[in-house]
Specification:
It comes from Paenibacillus cisolokensis. This protein has two helices and two strands. The protein is an alpha+beta fold. It has one domain. Strand 1, helix 1 and strand 2 form a beta-alpha-beta unit.
C-alpha cells in the first residue's frame, strides 16, 4: 500500500485536483493524505475546508 500526500491551498487549485483525489481514494492500493492550507482556512475566502470535508474526503483531519 502506498501513501500519496496532496497539498491544496486554494479553491481553484482544489477544483483542478478533485477528480484526481477521487481516483486516489477509490484505488485500494493507495492511501490519500490531504493537507488543506492557506485560503481554505480563511473566513475571508469562505472557510472552504468545510466544503472539502463535506465532499467525503476520508483522509481529512482537523
Amino acid at each position: 500500500m502506498r501513501k500519496i500526500c496532496v497539498v491544496t491551498g486554494s479553491r481553484a487549485e482544489y477544483g483542478l485536483l478533485y477528480w484526481l483525489l477521487k481516483e486516489i481514494q477509490e484505488d485500494a492500493d493507495l492511501v490519500l493524505q490531504l493537507v488543506v492550507t492557506g485560503m481554505h482556512l480563511s473566513p475571508e475566502f469562505g472557510l472552504t475546508y468545510q466544503q472539502i470535508e463535506k465532499t467525503g474526503s476520508k483522509s481529512m483531519r482537523k
